[in-house]
Amino acid sequence: MRTKKSQVNKEEYMFSLIAEQATSGQSIKSFCARHGIPSGNWFYWQKRYQQRNLEAHSENGSFTLLQISPDVVSSIDSAIFAEYKGMKIYRPVPASFLKELIG
């Protein structure tokens, strides 16, 4: 029977290998072969590693920084296709749509 301490050490070891593989540029298959790790074990620990990171982020209430840039409006998009009672339509639409809008 494994002790809690040996399980924690194994977890730390595997998590460090997962982080190492991610930055190594090696495929998982070649990395596992180099370290003598069965691929089934690798994917088990990788899943635990991902779950641990997910839990850590949700516990911290962390956010992901998003970079939002304004849309680039081309000259075609900025030309008005149709205007009716102050409503401006910037893209071509079927005549049936315009008839329904007016009617």
How would you describe this protein?
The chain is mainly α. Helix content is 61%, strand content 6%. The chain is built from 5 helices and 2 strands; from the N terminus they run ααααββα. It has a two-stranded antiparallel sheet with strand order 1-2. β1 (82-84) and β2 form a beta hairpin. α1 crosses α3 (39-60). The mean pLDDT is 78.
Approximate strand percentage: 5-15%
Biggest sheet overview: 2 strands, antiparallel
State the separation between the terminal residues, measured CA to CA. Answer: 79 Å
Shape: elongated
Q: What is the percent of helical residues?
A: 55-70%
Number of strands: 2
| H/E topology pattern | HHHHEEH
Kindly state the mean pLDDT as a whole number? Answer: 78
Structural class of the helices, strands and pairings? mainly alpha
Note the total helix count.
5
Give the oligomeric state of the chains in this entry, treating copies of one chain as homo and distinct chains as hetero: single chain
Global Rg: 28 Å
Key traits:
single chain, 103 residues, mainly alpha, two-stranded antiparallel ribbon, 5 helices, 6% strand, elongated
